[in-house]
Amino acid sequence: MDEKLIQRLESAVARLEALSCGRGGSPDIGGDAASLDPSIVAYEDLIAQFVGRVSSAAEKIGGQVLDVTKIIEQAFSTQKELLIKVKQSQKPDMAGLVEFLKPLNEVIVKATKMTEGRRSDFFNHLKAATDSLTALAWIAYSGKDCGMSMPIAHVEESWQMAEFYSNKILVEYRNKDANHVEWAKALKELYIPGLRDYVKSHYPLGPVWSASGKTVVFAPTKASASGAPAPPPPPPASLFSSEPPKPSSSQPKEGMAAVFEEINSGKPVTSGLRKVTADMKTKNRADRSGVVSAGEKERGVSSSSFSKAGPPKLELQMGRKWVVENQIGKKNLVIDDCDAKQSVYIFGCKDSVLQIQGKVNNITIDKCSKMGVVFKDVVAACEIVNCNGIEVQCQGSAPTISVDNTGGCQLYLSKDSLGASITTAKSSEINVLVPGAGQDDDWGEHALPHQYVHVYKDGQFVTTPVSHSGG
């Protein structure tokens, strides 16, 4: 028998003996009894089996991958302690729930900080781990009106965001280092099926609080402890003045109000204007000429090109078209409230990631660079036009994918979208990645040709793709 299993059995027996001797018939569930609950024991098995596999792979890699994996271990251990407290506590109000979940939130924030600052060589590992930890927020589900998906769906949706970076790891290290591939696969199995199946078996409708347990009390302020409401935040420093406040009528007016006040004052309107002398006129100034310098030309070009970019947008227009424009450096863009009659238009985005959660009619990606798009299902087509360095992942079905005037495009297809018709024109460096035959098999990468040979034969031209063979 496995040594770890024997140790766990011995520990369980010891806790049962201590519980039978020490519990004096109290109706509340004590700490020992809660830790022996089948759901808690199953969670310990989840940690031992799935988290342990991720940790084993991380130890072989070391560095930041090992550091972020230790945070994953800490997050799952923290959630285990929270699940034990759920067995012993009554359902709190919103303020109490926020305080109750604070230890888990602090661990997730710690992981998020690892992805900030200068981009690491293991950025994809850090993002996959950090985004996956949001799956643990299923414990905050308190009902259909809480603004969250059901616990099982929440775990699946959270992993979909992390899977974008996990797939990058699999592609990058497929033929370089098996330890990184093992780490990415183990991380996926931790959530799908690991955590998902656990939640499905024990908490499909969210955590079950104790009806007779203790009340969760959040840390009160001095005022709230005495029954009075908490004071508002302190005003800005400018309000801490020794002078008494002046009435609004004595405050100087600004903008158009000041203009009308000056007009109505009865004073000559032009009394405050300066007289322009002869030497101040442009035609008499030596420092002004009709010749435009090269520097001024460059500044004019740069300023006009900047003004064309426009403000960032992520909005639904006329109820039919989602517009995502000019997003730069945004890694967590999400469209979740969409339907099959709506289209998505992505324009001018750079170094960003957009996730489309739901079926839409059409997706167009135009003039974007270093952009990642993850979508589930599309009714008509996904179009990529005038782009550079694009990564698109289809998690459902897509009948048509077209790539036009694009350099550098990675397409990740799901098993449901393998029958998609892919059309390319004036594009290069297009790679299509398809899942392996088995769950543990590596992704297969296929390069689409962009060079062709045209040969005149039998009265017509015959076109074939260029094939390169090694000598």
Any key phrases for this structure?
two-stranded antiparallel ribbon; 14 strands; 471 residues; 12-stranded mixed β-sheet; alpha/beta; CARP_motif; C-CAP_CF_C-like; 12 helices; CAP_N; single chain
Describe the protein's topology:
Elements: H1 3-22, H2 31-35, H3 38-61, H4 63-88, H5 94-100, H6 102-114, H7 123-132, H8 151-173, H9 178-202, H10 222-225, H11 256-264, H12 294-307, E1 313-317, E2 321-325, E3 333-335, E4 343-347, E5 350-366, E6 369-385, E7 388-394, E8 400-404, E9 407-412, E10 421-425, E11 428-434, E12 444-448, E13 452-457, E14 460-465
Parallel strand pairs: 2-4, 3-5, 4-5, 5-6, 6-7, 6-8, 7-9, 8-10, 9-11
Antiparallel strand pairs: 1-2, 11-12, 13-14
Biased composition (Low complexity): 238-254
Organism: Coffea arabica
InterPro entries: Adenylate_cyclase-assoc_CAP, Adenylate_cyclase-assoc_CAP_C, Adenylate_cyclase-assoc_CAP_N, C-CAP_CF_C-like, CAP/MinC_C, CAP_C_sf, CAP_CS_N, CAP_N
**Can you tell me the overall shape?**
globular
Order of SSEs: HHHHHHHHHHHHEEEEEEEEEEEEEE
Query: Could you tell me the strand content as a percent range?
Result: 15-25%
Rg measurement, Å: 31 Å
Distance between the termini: 55 Å
What characterizes the major β-sheet? 12 strands, mixed
Quantity of strands, as a count: 14
Mean pLDDT, nearest integer? 78
Helix content: 25-40%
Q: Determine the structural class based on helices, strands and strand pairing.
A: alpha/beta
Low-confidence stretches: 21-29, 218-250, 296-307
Number of helices: 12
Domain C-CAP/cofactor C-like: 311-448
Pfam families: CAP_C, CAP_N, CAP_N-CM
Protein name: Adenylyl cyclase-associated protein
Family: Belongs to the CAP family.
